[in-house]
Amino acid sequence: MKRNLVFVLLLTLFGTGASAQLKVGKLLKAGGNLISAVTLTDADIAEMSKSAVEKMDQENQVDTSDYHRRLQRLTENISVDGLKLNFKVYLTKDVNAFACGDGSVRVYSALMDTMSDSELMAIIGHEIGHVARTDTKDALKNAYLRSAAQNAAGSVSGSVAARLSESQLAELANSLAQAQYSQKQEYDADEYGFEFCLKNNVDPYAMYHALDKLADMSKTNRNNASAIVKAFATHPDSYKRAQRMKEKADALQH
Ligand SMILES: [Zn+2]
Which Pfam families does the record cross-reference, listed alphabetically (predicted)? Predict the structure, then answer.
């Protein structure tokens, strides 16, 4: 059971919470100490990001059938400056999606079951927003600095990513995906998702509907919900986020 992987990924869309704190504590113990002067170039981070996604792709069941075709149909004409996007669907019961700095976007089948096409596009836009605003990159970098992975750096030759062991890579992948985003970062990613919808001829109310749906799910499924929904439920302002997006869409109607 890939409990860790699945669990932590769920926090990317709305995630903050105690779990991330625990994780950091665990990593600190494992790593022993914080490195204050690790040099990480953008190329290092990009490579680690790519390696982390490849690890996730190996760990998850990637759909090649209906989900894949639906996502392909939705995304075949979208482009984002500076990002070479690639999409995959993970077959899982968890409601989630995430994007990475290498342009990888991963969408969970249960999210696709839950969302309409336009809502799905809004969430994809939101996730790309975290990448565009470097939230994801910063999260990965911080995770790397905190993680035991840093102990592998320095003494061996080769790139930073190449020096990661399999288990360290898994830790990094987890840490990247469970990044704690601030409320401001979430608001900004919502804004990005909204604009993303406009650019791609998606219903301007899609971001509103998607957020509203997740807020509803967090209310009705509090006990057995996917972690994304639970994480969302811990935000008191869930509906406020949705409402902001509705107001933006309303403003376009005048
Ligand atoms: Zn988010």
Answer: Peptidase_M48 (PF01435)
More confident residue, 115 or 7: 115
**Is residue 167 within 8 Å of 222, Cβ to Cβ?**
no
Q: Is the pLDDT of residue 111 over 80?
A: yes
The neighbourhood of ligand 1, an ion, using CB within 5 A, equals 13, 186, 189
Q: What's the whole-number mean pLDDT along residues 11-19?
A: 42
Q: Tell the residue number behind the tokens 């565009």, with chain if given.
A: 132
Residue 210 CA to ligand 1 centre (angstroms): 12
Q: What is the pLDDT of residue 36?
A: 34
Q: Ramachandran region of residue 107, left (φ > 0), alpha (ψ -120 to 50) or beta?
A: beta
- For ligand 1, the distance from its centroid to the CA atom of residue 8, given in whole angstroms, is 13
Catalytic residue numbers, as ranges: 127
Ligand 1: centre distance to CA 189 (Å):
6
- Tally of domains in the chain: 1
Cα 160–Cα 165–Cα 171 angle in degrees, nearest 5: 90
| Distance of alpha carbon 32 from alpha carbon 30, whole angstroms | 6
Task: Give the domain range for residue 13.
Answer: 3-252
CA of 119 from ligand 1 middle (Å) equals: 14
Q: Is the predicted pLDDT of residue 24 greater than 50, yes or no?
A: no
